[in-house]
């Protein structure tokens, strides 16, 4: 099985094109003002317009007003929505658009119940938990907390980089992996060599 990969926190055309050239299946745009990787709508639209075919444009939102999500989706041309806050299943499916739901994993979180609750999601994105931080912590979490046989595909995030992505894939066997800080030279500014190394790690991983 080929593992898919998303490079998130894209803020520059050249970084998106590097990700695509290295084999990334998707690029992510953060529309959350508190994030250092927040990108304005006009720039995101320019980046999406420059993408080659078959690269999915994903918009990340955190407890955003529904009208704002709709406006940004239309203006940017997003293919997939990613909800990273406390959104309800009813909210997430109200856009009549494909979406993934991000969850910050901790021992008391019932992932099986969440998979059932968000049955309309295309996948669950599993990230590290840190109090008061919606994501992008650069930390891994205990992968053993992921139960076998989840009813939704798993997108693994949280502290991944070229050094550990192979082990992560072998242990978790996710549908896809998601990286942001692990391929950066600065927050929101990607590193060509790190993207290439990360994608080699994904493509070389044995599952």
UniProtKB/TrEMBL annotation:
Listed GO MF terms: phosphoribosylanthranilate isomerase activity
Name of the featured protein: N-(5'-phosphoribosyl)anthranilate isomerase
Class of enzymatic activity (EC top level): isomerase
PANTHER family: N-(5'-PHOSPHORIBOSYL)ANTHRANILATE ISOMERASE
Reaction equation(s) it catalyzes: N-(5-phospho-beta-D-ribosyl)anthranilate = 1-(2-carboxyphenylamino)-1-deoxy-D-ribulose 5-phosphate
Keyword Isomerase in annotation: yes
Residue stretches making up the N-(5'phosphoribosyl) anthranilate isomerase (PRAI) domain: 5-199
Highest rank taxon of the organism: Bacteria
BP-aspect Gene Ontology terms: L-tryptophan biosynthetic process
Pathway: Amino-acid biosynthesis; L-tryptophan biosynthesis; L-tryptophan from chorismate: step 3/5
Keywords: Amino-acid biosynthesis, Aromatic amino acid biosynthesis, Isomerase, Tryptophan biosynthesis
InterPro entries (UniProt xref): Aldolase_TIM (IPR013785), PRAI_dom (IPR001240), RibuloseP-bd_barrel (IPR011060), TrpF_fam (IPR044643)
A Pfam family reported for this protein in Swiss-Prot or TrEMBL: PRAI
EC number: 5.3.1.24
Family: Belongs to the TrpF family.
């Amino acid at each position: 099985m080929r593992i898919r990969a998303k490079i998130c926190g894209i803020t520059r055309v050249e970084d998106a094109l590097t990700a695509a050239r290295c084999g990334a299946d998707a690029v992510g745009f953060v529309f959350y003002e508190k994030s250092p990787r927040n990108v304005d709508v006009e720039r995101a639209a320019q980046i999406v317009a420059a993408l080659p075919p078959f690269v999915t444009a994903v918009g990340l939102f955190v407890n955003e007003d529904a009208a704002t999500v709709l406006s940004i989706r239309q203006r940017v041309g997003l293919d997939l929505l990613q909800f990273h806050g406390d959104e309800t299943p009813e909210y997430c499916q109200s856009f009549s658009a494909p979406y993934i739901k991000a969850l910050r994993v901790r021992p008391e979180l019932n992932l099986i119940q969440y998979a059932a609750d968000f049955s309309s999601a295309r996948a669950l994105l599993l990230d590290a938990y840190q109090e008061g931080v919606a994501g992008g912590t650069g930390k891994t979490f205990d992968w053993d907390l992921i139960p076998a046989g989840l009813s939704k595909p798993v997108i693994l995030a949280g502290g991944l980089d070229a050094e550990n992505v192979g082990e992560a894939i072998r242990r978790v066997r996710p549908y896809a992996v998601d990286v942001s800080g692990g391929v950066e030279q600065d927050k929101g500014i990607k590193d060509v060599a790190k993207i290439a190394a990360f994608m080699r790690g994904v493509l070389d991983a044995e599952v």
